[in-house]
Specification:
Helix content is about 35%, strand content about 20%. Helix 4 crosses helix 5. By secondary structure, the protein is α+β, with helices and mostly antiparallel strands. Strands 1-3-4-5 form a 4-stranded antiparallel beta sheet, with helices on one face. Strands 6-2-7 form a 3-stranded antiparallel beta sheet. It has one domain. It starts with 9 loop residues before the first helix and ends with a strand. The model has no long low-confidence stretch (mean pLDDT about 85).
Length: about 160
């Protein structure tokens, strides 16, 4: 059981700790006796650091959501890491990337799929294959299924 969700500013604390320790490193090895010789490189804190910043959260709108509109659910913590978002909803930690962060940011207040699509296209351009509205609709469905967005009934 993790108590991470119980800490104030849990994701920012974790990101600061990781940054102070030189970042997260992954070690691949086939034989345990090769680990010792790799330790100096692992302990070198001058490695590449991912930029991160806490995302301020506004209280979630509690008004009923009209059909055809989406808005984000109430996250308990959020952190931007590069182009991705790390979101905490209670004790559930999720990473949102691709067009997801644009959709999440744009849905702070109720918004329809056409406006979301315009925002995604203005940031990323038209998709090479398929329609932008289809791609955004699919991403919104995934975010709704994950509990990151709410969708008004009848949409």
């Amino acid at each position: 059981m993790s108590y991470l969700a119980d800490l104030p500013d849990a994701l920012a604390r974790l990101a600061r700790l990781i940054s102070e320790r030189g970042g997260v490193k992954v070690m691949h090895y086939s034989e345990a006796d090769t680990v010792v010789e790799s330790m100096p490189q692992l302990l070198d804190v001058a490695g590449v650091q991912e930029r991160w910043e806490p995302v301020p959260l506004e209280p979630a709108d509690q008004l009923p959501l009209a059909a055809g509109l989406v808005r984000r659910t109430a996250a308990t913590d959020a952190l931007r890491v590069g182009d991705a978002l790390v979101l905490m909803h209670g004790s559930m930690l999720r990473v949102v990337d691709g067009i997801g962060p644009v959709i999440w940011e744009a849905s702070e207040r109720s918004i329809d799929l056409h406006d979301l699509t315009r925002m995604v296209v203005s940031r990323f351009g038209e998709p090479v294959d398929g329609e932008a509205l289809d791609a955004v609709s699919s991403a919104v469905r995934e975010l709704v299924d994950a509990g990151i967005l709410d969708m008004g009934s009848g949409a």
